[in-house]
């Protein structure tokens, strides 16, 4: 079997999620940068991989796939290395629940609602709308509060070892923690803060850090 090819920019949280999973499994892969901020997601060659122009997309031995959750399940099921899906049915269900929670309730407010106005906007000479940022931060905090409850006594999100849920959350927190709102959220949620200290120390997190 050949090495997987991941299409997407290194700065994308979802591209990093896939790369973290591959790194946790100690698998080699090729990253092909597709800079969606420069419109490269709309080029015909990428639309053939992902008809909605999003990232990431995966190619492996002639098999193509898009949507991060599907990609990571494929990586974990089809490729060798450390298993990132719990065997226990309840832990597996919890993992999928947390991944869905991140996609549906955390990513948009944390990244588009807070991180981009707070960090990226000023780089482009833009000023954040404080009312909108506060509204999005409250929504992100609600999602993080639910994850805090679901962690329980686990070292990682659903158990004693890293799962696909951890690779799903870490890139989002990596950006959100750079904002005052993200810093405050971690102070409010001690289990999440302890998880963050563990996950950011892993090689899979360090080696996939984007460079701006």
What features would you describe in this structure?
The protein has 212 residues and is α+β, with helices and mostly antiparallel strands. The protein is globular. The two termini are 33 Å apart. The chain has helices at 13-24, 44-47, 68-78, 89-123, 130-151, 164-176, 180-188, 190-199, 203-206, and strands at residues 5-7, 30-32, 57-60, 63-66. It has 2 domains: 5-78, Glutaredoxin (3-Layer(aba) Sandwich), CATH 3.40.30.10; 89-206, Glutathione S-transferase Yfyf (Class Pi), Chain A, domain 2, CATH 1.20.1050.10. The chain has a 4-stranded mixed β-sheet, with helices on one face. The mean pLDDT is 97. The longest helix has 35 residues, at 89-123. The chain is 57% helix and 7% strand. Strand 1, helix 1 (13-24) and strand 2 (30-32) form a beta-alpha-beta unit.
CATH level-1 class of the largest domain: Mainly Alpha
CATH level-3 fold name of the largest domain: Glutathione S-transferase Yfyf (Class Pi), Chain A, domain 2
Q: Pick out the low-confidence regions.
A: none
Main sheet summary: 4 strands, mixed
- Integer tally of domains: 2
Strand order of the largest sheet: 2-1-3-4
Order of helices and strands: EHEHEEHHHHHHH
State the share of residues found in helices, binned by percent: 55-70%
Mean pLDDT: 97
What would the principal axes of the Cα set say about the shape? Answer: globular
The value of Rg in angstroms is 17 Å
What is the β-strand count? 4
CATH architecture of the largest domain: Up-down Bundle
End-to-end C-alpha gap = 33 Å
Range of strand content: 5-15%
Number of helices: 9
């Amino acid at each position: 079997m050949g090495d997987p090819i991941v299409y997407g920019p290194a700065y994308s949280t979802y591209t990093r999620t896939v790369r973290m999973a591959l790194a946790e499994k100690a698998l080699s892969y090729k990253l092909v940068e597709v800079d969606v901020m420069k419109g490269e997601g709309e080029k015909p060659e990428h639309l053939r991989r992902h008809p909605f122009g999003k990232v990431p997309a995966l190619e492996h031995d002639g098999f193509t796939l898009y949507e991060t959750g599907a990609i990571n399940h494929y990586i974990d099921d089809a490729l060798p290395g450390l298993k990132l899906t719990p065997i226990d049915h309840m832990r597996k269900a919890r993992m999928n629940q947390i991944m869905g929670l991140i996609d549906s309730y955390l990513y948009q407010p944390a990244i588009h609602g807070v991180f981009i106005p707070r960090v990226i906007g000023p780089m482009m000479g833009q000023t954040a709308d404080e009312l909108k940022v506060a509204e999005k931060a409250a929504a992100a905090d609600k999602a993080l509060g639910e994850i805090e409850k679901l962690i329980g006594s686990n070292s990682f999100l659903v158990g004693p070892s890293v799962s696909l849920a951890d690779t799903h959350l870490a890139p989002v927190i990596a950006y959100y923690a750079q904002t005052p709102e993200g810093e405050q959220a971690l102070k409010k949620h001690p289990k999440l803060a302890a998880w963050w200290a563990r996950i950011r120390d892993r090689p899979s997190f360090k080696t996939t850090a984007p460079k701006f």
